Amino acid sequence: MSRLRMLAAPCLAAVLALASPARATTTRPVTVAELTRASDDVIVGTVRRSSSRWEGGFIVTDHEVEVVGALKGRLPARATVLVRVAGGVVGRIAQAIPGAPSLDDGRTYVLFLAGGISSARYLAHMTAAVVPVSADAAGHAVAGVPSSLVMAPASASPAGHAPAPVELDAVTRAVRSVAP
Question: Could you tell me which of 144, 147, 148 has the C-alpha nearest to residue 170?
Answer without folding.
Answer: 144
